[in-house]
Amino acid sequence: MNAVVCDRYGAPEALRLADVPLPAPREGEILIRVRAASLNALDWHLIKGRPPIARLFLGLRRPKMNRPGHDVAGSVESVGPGVTRFKPGDEVFGACRGSLAEFACARERALALKPAGVPFEDAAAAPVAGLTALQGLRDHGRIQPGQRVLINGAAGGVGTFAVQIAKALGAEVTGVCGPRNVETVRAIGADRVIDYTREDFTRGAARYDLIFDLVANHSFPSCRRVLAPRGVFIPAGSGGSDGHALLRRMGRTAMGALASRFTRQKVLLFIARLGPRDLDALGELLASGKVKPVIDHRFRLSEAGQAMRRLATGHACGKVVVVVG
Under CATH, what is the fold of the domain 2-126+293-323? Predict the structure, then answer.
């Protein structure tokens, strides 16, 4: 079968299409005939090995995980021992390793049934970004109807889901993005859109119950002045596609978490977790039309390097999708 592999750290040119053996599902696994996959900043970090210290875990000389791609949508080809929730022919979406391939194996708990009528490309765009937005806003931000929520980075992969999920939860949403994406963010439901090249939201008069920060271009002390007295600041994502952005995110998050111990305004940290219950909840949002993935560009499997390069620019509006079959 054809699959994208990465045998060395480097630019997207390190990706190549190769003929590899068809994987066999093990205990609790499902073999998926991949129809579409999508990219996340995590995929970029894995092939770049950035920041360099990450290579202690990812592989010193070359990536240990040399098959990129996590988000996936497709049909069940076969199931391994112990699988009870799915059968061959079922259409599914979720996450696995090495989704940039014609076939991939996924754990049963990392998948959900794809809603009927939702295109494979839309389903593939949703898992990692959609779950990050859903869990960050619903479970950690605990959004209540009528609350004022600001999404910093509203045009990105997570941000476009966050705007729509916050609206579905009844919030009044302000989205922050660049000038090229103002109309898109408004079209997906933001009540107000701030063009960051013209206005610094941390200096505005509005106050927010929750700031969902996906960019890491403002410190917690800067954001505190526009948080409500008991407001919540939630950083999520890597803050960019390069290692420096990731380190900046980590440093600012740590300082913010420390500072929040001495104020009623809080910094809440979380790591999105993959599970069937929330994948089902995300599927319901897709099926209802309350959430519609924004797809920046579609590439073929043979164009995976171009897809990764588009992701690395940091200017993709929504998700970059790879169409497989």
Answer: Quinone Oxidoreductase; Chain A, domain 1 (3.90.180)
pLDDT at residue number 258: 60
Residue ranges of the domains in the chain?
2-126+293-323, 129-267
pLDDT for 19-57, tens place per residue? 999 999 999 999 999 999 999 988 887 777 666 777 777
Q: C-alpha angle with apex 260: 141 to 235, nearest 5 degrees?
A: 45
101 secondary structure, DSSP code? B
Tell me how far apart the alpha carbons of residues 25 and 191 are, in angstroms, rounded to a whole number.
46
- CB under 8 Å, gap of 24 or more: what pairs does 282-286 form? 282/112, 282/126, 282/127, 282/130, 282/131, 282/134, 283/93, 283/112, 283/113, 283/114, 283/115, 283/118, 283/123, 284/115, 285/130, 285/134, 285/164, 285/165, 285/168, 286/115, 286/118, 286/122, 286/123, 286/126
Residues 129-267: name the CATH superfamily: NAD(P)-binding Rossmann-like Domain (3.40.50.720)
Tell me the Cα Rg of the chain: 19
Q: What is the pLDDT of residue 47?
A: 76
CA distances from 158 to 200, 285, 317 (A): 21, 15, 10
Report the SS3 class of residue 261.
helix
**248-295 residue pLDDT tens:** 555 555 655 565 565 779 999 999 999 999 999 999 999 999 999 999
Residues found in the chain: 325
Low-confidence ranges of the chain (pLDDT < 50): 243
CA-based nearest residue to 123, from 155, 90, 83, 171: 90
The pLDDT, as a whole number, for residue 246 is 54
Is the distance from CB of 324 to CB of 102 less than 8 angstroms?
yes
